[in-house]
Amino acid sequence: MSKKFTLTASMMCADYGHLKREVESLESAGIDSFHIDIMDGRYVNNFAMSLYDMAYIAKATKKPLDVHLMIEHPRNNIELFLDRLRPGDTVYIHPEAEYHPAITMQKITDAGMHPGIAINPGTSVETVKEMLRIADHVLVMAVNPGNASQVFLPYVEEKIDKLTKLREKMGFQLFWDGACNAERMLKYAPKGIDGFVLGTNLLFGKKAPYKEIIESVRKLDFAYLK
């Protein structure tokens, strides 16, 4: 293992009947951050977490939030999100969703947060290469955005290889989102992926407690799945 990797919980997969307990349990189990998927039903054909879900989790934990904005023209409403977040949180936008994504990323930076770009499976590295220089975090989507439990798209692996080579030169951290299972973590954690978003494949809906799962994932020992 070349380095420690970050684990972030995909909160759209959590039990919303007991959201406070979910946040507390994940925090005490050692999760590094909370991943918040915001969807507007326009950029993607689904509605997911709301502004107020995000705000509640921001108040319920001291851990960082990773806010993934799957919305059209996020600059129009970015202050609604930034005003409810804390310095050090991360906000991802999709470059295709914005006329001038660099302006939106600057607003995120000016608020004391980490600007991030999310790269869809159908978006080439070449089309976002210049933005990699101003992004603190890059989120590679291994599935099409919009829904949990989608099928992994294998051609994304070539994109991840390209980005791991560019990462040190460009100065960003690289995160994997979607269809994150044991096989893919075993392959890509040693290559130096900085972090993984954990959903139903590895974290939620399992019989084992969160603490046992997170400890197993950090060791890349997936006996709890057997």
Give descriptors for this structure.
eight-stranded parallel beta barrel, 226 residues, 8 helices, single chain, alpha/beta
Characterization of this structure:
By secondary structure, the protein is α/β, with parallel strands linked by helices. The chain is 31% helix and 19% strand. The protein contains eight helices and eight strands; from the N terminus they run βαβαβαβαβαβαβαβα. It has an eight-stranded parallel beta barrel, surrounded by four helices. The two termini are 23 Å apart.
Set out the fold topology.
Layout: E1 6-10, H1 19-29, E2 33-39, H2 51-60, E3 65-70, H3 78-82, E4 90-93, H4 101-110, E5 114-119, H5 125-128, E6 137-141, H6 156-170, E7 173-177, H7 182-188, E8 195-198, H8 210-218
Parallel strand pairs: 1-2, 1-8, 2-3, 3-4, 4-5, 5-6, 6-7, 7-8
Helix pairs in contact: 1-8
Please sum up the structure shown.
With 226 residues, the chain is of the alpha/beta class.
The fraction of residues assigned to DSSP E strands is 15-25%
- Mass-distribution shape: globular
Mean pLDDT: 92
User: What is the rounded distance between the termini?
Assistant: 23 Å
Helix content: 25-40%
The oligomeric status of these chains comes to: single chain
Radius of gyration: 16 Å
Please state how the strands of the largest beta sheet are arranged side by side: 1-2-3-4-5-6-7-8
Structural class: alpha/beta
Number of strands: 8
